Amino acid sequence: MYELGVVYRNIRRADGDLAAKLGAFGTATVHEAMGRIGLLKAYMRPIYAGAQAAGTAVTVLLQPGDNWMLHVVAEQIRAGDIVVAAVTSDCTDGYFGDLLATSFKARGAQGLVIDAGVRDVRVLTGMNFPVWSKAISAKGTVKATLGSVNIPIVCAGALVTPGDIIVADDDGVVVVPATLAQKTLQAAATREANEGDKRAKLASGVLGLDMYNMREALQKAGLKYID
């Protein structure tokens, strides 16, 4: 069960340089490099095209229709953090808007990932403050019930521990456990170099059928060409 009514202030964050380097590879490459784990559910979408962020997770657990703890988590943000918010039960209310974004940005937040709704999207876009959410809703929230800050949470199906690395872009959001960050960075670099070679071959006109030696397997599977 979740621990409610607590704020952990001294969390151990992954190295910010590792976060930036992983962010440069993007969500898809990082997800693949980590062994296809850590990806948040596909309904988590950026509120504007081209949004991109990478940083260390500060987590917050919210109650349905109540954004009180987003004001509490703001105090715990350090430069380079991404706030990751989960809700104790399903809710699509607009928890977050331009006023909270202004506060988060002043604290150095790189963005917000929230398994709920947000609003003031036009203003947030103009602020270049990236948010990944499962909904956009003008419906407001109250401030009445305690949640918690900097506890392990499950956000959109993925476990997020305070201090983990978050990489988010147009393809979605992936969480990299701090303990796997260095290994994942090395695997991502290897994968990117390999894909660079493949990209060059494909650009020269080589078919994936031949580059991946698919023809024999396709023939065995029963594929027939008819002229």
Describe the structure.
There is one protein chain. It is built from eight helices and eleven strands. The protein is an alpha/beta fold and 227 residues long. Helix 3 links the parallel strand 2 and strand 3. Helix content is 33%, strand content 24%. The N and C termini lie far apart (63 Å). The protein has helices at residues 16-25, 27-33, 68-74, 98-107, 121-127, 181-203, 208-211, 215-221; strands at residues 45-46, 53-62, 81-87, 94-96, 111-118, 131-136, 148-149, 153-155, 158-160, 165-169, 172-176. The strands form two sheets. Strands 1, 2, 3, 4, 5, 6, 7, 10 and 11 form a nine-stranded mixed beta sheet that branches. A two-stranded antiparallel ribbon has the order 8-9.
Q: Give the oligomer, counting copies of the same chain as homo and different chains as hetero.
A: single chain
Shape: elongated
Average pLDDT score: 97
Low-pLDDT stretches are none
Question: How much helix is in the residues?
Answer: 25-40%
**Rg over C-alpha atoms, rounded to the nearest angstrom:** 20 Å
How far apart, in Å, are the first and last alpha carbons? 63 Å
How big a fraction of the residues is strand? 15-25%
Order of helices and strands: HHEEHEEHEHEEEEEEHHH
Structure summary, number of beta strands: 11
Structural class: alpha/beta
